[in-house]
Amino acid sequence: MIDYSPFWETLKKSNESTYTLINKHHISSSTIDKLRKNKPLNTTTLNDLCRILDCDIQEICRYIPSDTDQSL
């Protein structure tokens, strides 16, 4: 499972907010909702968040092994 809890900590430490992400940087409110609910995001969105927040990917998300992960 991909967990976005690091994103919320990174956001708190930054000069940004969900308001500025949506209104200044044009991140959709549905993307913010996906972050809240640990739903899948595409890598372009992750790249944008890293650029906006000037951070590394591990400051946005982390992988947590789960029994409900899809198997190939």
Automatic annotation (TrEMBL):
SUPFAM superfamilies: lambda repressor-like DNA-binding domains (SSF47413)
Pfam families hit by this protein: HTH_26
Gene3D superfamilies noted in UniProt: lambda repressor-like DNA-binding domains
Superkingdom of origin organism: Bacteria
Record-annotated membrane-spanning stretches: none
InterPro entries named among the record's database cross-references: Cro/C1-type_HTH, Lambda_DNA-bd_dom_sf
Organism lineage string: Bacteria, Bacillati, Bacillota, Clostridia, Lachnospirales
Start and end residues of each HTH cro/C1-type domain: 8-65
Name of the protein in its database record: Helix-turn-helix transcriptional regulator
